[in-house]
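User: Quick sanity check before I run a bigger batch. Here is a single chain. Can you write out its predicted 3D structure?
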Amino acid sequence: MAEAAIIVGGIVLAGAAATGAVKNLLRRRIPDLAQDDLLPDPTNDLKVIRNFTEQDKAGLKAAFGDSPDFIWILKDGAKLEKEDASDMESGTSYLMDFVFYLAENYGHIIKSVDKGGNFQGSIVLVPPVTPFHYKAYTFAAMAHCGKPPPALWGDANRKARFDAFADISGPHHEAMHDCLDDHWYLLNLGVSPSAQGKRVGTRLLKQAIHLAGDKPLFLECHNGNAPYYEKYGFQCKKNYPFAAPEGTSRSPFYYNAMRRDPDQ
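Assistant: Done. Predicted structure follows.
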């Protein structure tokens, strides 16, 4: 059986050398975030963690259980019905598992808990990294999650919408063209339904702004969330529809590449 081989910098590596190169490429390159790195918060309910608990994951999946972008993939602008609940749950679970893998292996996680220690919300930040390394990290997350469930790939049109949703690196690079490997990426911000309206998300967002310091901060969001982020200094650098192939979607869904510079 032939040995697996990869090409690194024009040099062909095989066997143990290839394995070592892949491990080096995918290793965690950032120091762990410490509790003392956080901005002092009067509620004292924010915790730096390396891994989500199962309760945390359930709470975060619930936070995105009716996310408009996920609904667009499944229903293409149509209203969710009771019979869609199972598909929505499995689709949300798959997409959030992708986030969990990236967060735990390559990002910083800050979560909010109530007085009983129960999950209220969390934010995931990826510190500055080269586009090459981030793409490698996403491939690792895809390999970890495996093939998308039928809820996302159940038919050709749904699969096309999912693929369009997943391919958003272009606007990210366009918005951050002058600092591609020198900006922070706000990968995910979610608040449990039971904690919404308690400023949990706002306090988590302020921690992201604090940690980014003198570096720009980037995030993607759908049109419904853009005004919220604009209140905290983010500017929409590009409003764009997901590029689903013609005939696979009746209703284009718009996203925003949002950037916050340190002087905002």
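The chain has ten helices and nine strands.

User: Great, the batch can go ahead then.
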